[in-house]
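WARN no homologs supplied; continuing
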Amino acid sequence: MNALYPGLAALSITVALFLLFLVIYGVFVRAYEQYQERYVVRSLDDLGNMFLFIDPRQLLMMNMATMVLLGLLAYVIFNGLLAIFATIFGFFLPMILIKQFRKRRIRLFNAQLVDALQGMSNAFKAGLTFQQAVEFIAKDAPSPLGQEFTLYVREVKLGVPLDQALLNMAARVGSEDLDLVAVSTNIARQLGGNMSEMFETLSGTIRERFRLEGKIAAMTAQGKLQGWVVAAMPIILGMIVNYQRPDLMQPLMNSYWGYLMVGVVAVMEVLGMLIIRRIVNIDI
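OK structure emitted
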């Protein structure tokens, strides 16, 4: 009987480890499915709306590559703690860059939309129809506005109603200014009105908003710079102290309490930057 105890103990441990492996595997599978649903699909939709078509596997490989690269660099240059944060940041870096690129594209589209609306107003004064005015703008406008207007023209030629094609373009671009233009145009076409005057008014309104945004950006530039300076001071001070007195910094990087303090400082740094950005970020 005593000889059976080691065998039963080994069998119990094996079964427990197997069940634990199944639980961990299920957690990772669900996490991967949620990652694909929330991040990969959203990033692919953003890239598709920007006329950049990438295979999901390529995007996943890009995430893995940046994760491994930043993690290894942080481990070689700094230490294991920063390597963990760099690895996590590297995993989400491609998605962050995609969002920033999309925001930049929307800003460029809005800037081009002002001149496009003025051109459409002049086209209406010359006697052109709405479809002819859009085709005229799509032919001469640079990207991204030219791409979006060209796709709108193709949808209409394929049988999509004008109103729906406008709404599709507004949803695809993600610009609040284009949403206003689409809704105003659809209402004006249904109820009747002076399209030339409407487009000229919209162009002036958007141009005035740009002027106010530029003025606010200039007034809040000092606050943003102060936020970056204050956030960089602990990091720069730590590097200086580590260079001059490494014996004082080594205990901080070789103990759990030191790791805890560095983590608290990093969290407070991020929260401070977010609060400052929230204060100086004024929407019009």
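The mean pLDDT is 79.
OK
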